[in-house]
Specification:
This protein is of the alpha/beta class. 28% of the residues lie in helices and 19% in strands. It is built from 3 helices and 15 strands. A 6-stranded mixed β-sheet has the order 3-6-9-12-14-15, with no helix packed on it. A 5-stranded parallel β-sheet has the order 1-4-7-10-13. The protein is globular and about 50 Å long.
Protein backbone atom coordinates (compact mmCIF):
# COMPACT_ATOMS: atom_id res chain seq x y z
CA UNK A 1 0.00 0.00 0.00
CA UNK A 2 1.48 3.34 -1.08
CA UNK A 3 0.42 5.48 1.89
CA UNK A 4 2.05 8.57 0.34
CA UNK A 5 -0.32 8.36 -2.64
CA UNK A 6 -2.98 11.06 -2.10
CA UNK A 7 -6.00 8.93 -2.97
CA UNK A 8 -4.79 5.93 -0.98
CA UNK A 9 -4.05 8.16 2.03
CA UNK A 10 -7.52 9.74 1.82
CA UNK A 11 -9.24 6.35 1.69
CA UNK A 12 -7.06 4.91 4.46
CA UNK A 13 -7.74 7.94 6.67
CA UNK A 14 -11.48 7.70 6.07
CA UNK A 15 -11.70 3.96 6.77
CA UNK A 16 -9.34 3.80 9.77
CA UNK A 17 -10.20 7.19 11.31
CA UNK A 18 -6.41 7.68 11.58
CA UNK A 19 -4.68 10.54 9.80
CA UNK A 20 -1.03 9.77 10.44
CA UNK A 21 0.20 13.32 9.89
CA UNK A 22 -2.41 15.16 11.96
CA UNK A 23 -2.54 12.51 14.70
CA UNK A 24 1.13 12.88 15.67
CA UNK A 25 1.14 16.69 15.45
CA UNK A 26 -1.95 16.87 17.65
CA UNK A 27 -0.59 14.28 20.07
CA UNK A 28 2.68 16.20 20.50
CA UNK A 29 0.74 19.33 21.47
CA UNK A 30 -1.69 17.53 23.77
CA UNK A 31 1.00 15.76 25.85
CA UNK A 32 3.32 18.80 25.95
CA UNK A 33 2.76 20.60 29.29
CA UNK A 34 4.46 23.73 27.88
CA UNK A 35 2.26 23.96 24.77
CA UNK A 36 1.29 27.49 23.72
CA UNK A 37 -1.91 26.31 21.99
CA UNK A 38 -5.22 27.25 23.60
CA UNK A 39 -6.75 24.83 26.08
CA UNK A 40 -9.91 24.56 23.99
CA UNK A 41 -7.93 23.55 20.89
CA UNK A 42 -5.91 21.03 22.91
CA UNK A 43 -9.13 19.51 24.37
CA UNK A 44 -10.56 19.23 20.86
CA UNK A 45 -7.40 17.49 19.62
CA UNK A 46 -7.47 15.24 22.69
CA UNK A 47 -11.04 14.26 21.78
CA UNK A 48 -10.03 13.49 18.16
CA UNK A 49 -7.01 11.47 19.32
CA UNK A 50 -9.09 9.46 21.79
CA UNK A 51 -11.74 8.83 19.13
CA UNK A 52 -9.08 7.51 16.73
CA UNK A 53 -7.47 5.47 19.53
CA UNK A 54 -10.80 3.90 20.51
CA UNK A 55 -11.62 2.98 16.91
CA UNK A 56 -8.16 1.54 16.28
CA UNK A 57 -8.21 -0.37 19.57
CA UNK A 58 -11.56 -1.94 18.73
CA UNK A 59 -10.72 -2.79 15.12
CA UNK A 60 -6.99 -3.51 15.17
CA UNK A 61 -6.09 -4.23 18.81
CA UNK A 62 -3.99 -1.09 19.08
CA UNK A 63 -3.30 0.75 22.34
CA UNK A 64 -0.92 3.69 22.58
CA UNK A 65 -0.66 4.93 26.15
CA UNK A 66 -1.58 8.58 26.54
CA UNK A 67 1.65 9.41 28.34
CA UNK A 68 3.98 7.63 25.93
CA UNK A 69 6.65 10.05 24.73
CA UNK A 70 7.87 10.14 21.12
CA UNK A 71 10.73 12.38 19.94
CA UNK A 72 9.25 12.15 16.44
CA UNK A 73 6.33 10.25 14.94
CA UNK A 74 7.26 6.57 14.62
CA UNK A 75 7.49 4.91 11.23
CA UNK A 76 4.62 2.42 11.10
CA UNK A 77 5.19 0.23 8.03
CA UNK A 78 1.92 -1.65 8.50
CA UNK A 79 -0.15 1.06 10.17
CA UNK A 80 -1.33 0.65 13.73
CA UNK A 81 -2.07 -3.09 13.47
CA UNK A 82 -1.80 -4.61 16.95
CA UNK A 83 0.74 -2.15 18.34
CA UNK A 84 0.61 -1.81 22.14
CA UNK A 85 2.74 0.86 23.81
CA UNK A 86 2.87 1.51 27.56
CA UNK A 87 1.80 4.84 28.98
CA UNK A 88 5.33 5.23 30.41
CA UNK A 89 7.36 4.36 27.28
CA UNK A 90 9.90 6.77 25.79
CA UNK A 91 10.67 6.31 22.10
CA UNK A 92 13.41 8.11 20.17
CA UNK A 93 13.51 9.71 16.73
CA UNK A 94 12.81 7.80 13.52
CA UNK A 95 11.95 4.50 15.18
CA UNK A 96 10.34 1.91 12.94
CA UNK A 97 7.64 -0.33 14.43
CA UNK A 98 6.19 -3.26 12.55
CA UNK A 99 2.83 -4.91 13.32
CA UNK A 100 1.98 -6.51 16.68
CA UNK A 101 4.83 -4.88 18.62
CA UNK A 102 4.35 -4.66 22.39
CA UNK A 103 6.30 -2.18 24.51
CA UNK A 104 5.31 -3.22 28.01
CA UNK A 105 5.77 -1.89 31.53
CA UNK A 106 6.77 -3.76 34.67
CA UNK A 107 3.53 -3.25 36.56
CA UNK A 108 3.72 -1.60 39.98
CA UNK A 109 6.96 0.31 39.30
CA UNK A 110 5.38 2.16 36.37
CA UNK A 111 8.57 1.81 34.36
CA UNK A 112 8.57 1.02 30.66
CA UNK A 113 11.14 0.74 27.91
CA UNK A 114 13.27 3.66 26.80
CA UNK A 115 14.13 3.23 23.14
CA UNK A 116 16.88 5.22 21.43
CA UNK A 117 16.93 6.88 18.03
CA UNK A 118 16.84 5.07 14.65
CA UNK A 119 15.71 1.71 16.03
CA UNK A 120 13.81 -0.93 14.09
CA UNK A 121 11.48 -3.27 15.96
CA UNK A 122 10.31 -6.34 14.05
CA UNK A 123 6.83 -7.83 13.88
CA UNK A 124 5.59 -9.45 17.08
CA UNK A 125 8.51 -8.25 19.21
CA UNK A 126 7.94 -7.74 22.93
CA UNK A 127 10.06 -5.22 24.81
CA UNK A 128 9.86 -5.23 28.59
CA UNK A 129 10.98 -2.40 30.89
CA UNK A 130 14.53 -2.06 29.52
CA UNK A 131 16.74 0.55 27.89
CA UNK A 132 17.46 0.17 24.18
CA UNK A 133 20.36 2.15 22.68
CA UNK A 134 20.49 4.01 19.36
CA UNK A 135 20.56 2.22 15.97
CA UNK A 136 19.34 -1.11 17.38
CA UNK A 137 17.52 -3.71 15.30
CA UNK A 138 15.16 -6.07 17.12
CA UNK A 139 14.12 -9.15 15.18
CA UNK A 140 10.61 -10.43 14.64
CA UNK A 141 9.10 -12.17 17.70
CA UNK A 142 12.11 -11.30 19.88
CA UNK A 143 11.45 -10.89 23.60
CA UNK A 144 13.81 -8.27 25.01
CA UNK A 145 14.26 -8.64 28.78
CA UNK A 146 17.68 -7.00 29.27
CA UNK A 147 19.18 -3.63 28.35
CA UNK A 148 20.64 -3.41 24.83
CA UNK A 149 23.61 -1.14 23.96
CA UNK A 150 23.70 0.99 20.83
CA UNK A 151 24.43 -0.44 17.36
CA UNK A 152 23.34 -4.03 18.09
CA UNK A 153 20.93 -6.58 16.68
CA UNK A 154 18.75 -8.63 19.03
CA UNK A 155 16.92 -11.85 18.09
CA UNK A 156 15.22 -14.74 19.84
CA UNK A 157 13.31 -15.51 23.01
CA UNK A 158 14.84 -14.42 25.31
CA UNK A 159 16.54 -11.78 23.17
CA UNK A 160 20.23 -12.29 22.50
CA UNK A 161 22.66 -9.84 20.91
CA UNK A 162 24.14 -11.22 17.69
Amino acid sequence: MDIDNGLVNLLYTHVSKYNRKKYWVWRAEVVNPDSKKSKLKRYYWFYKIKKADAFNNATMGTAIGGGAQFKSPPILRHGLNGIVISHYAKIGRDCELFQNVTIAQDGPNKKAAEIGDNCSIGAGAVILAVTIGDNVKIGANAVVTKDVPSNCTVVGNPGKIV
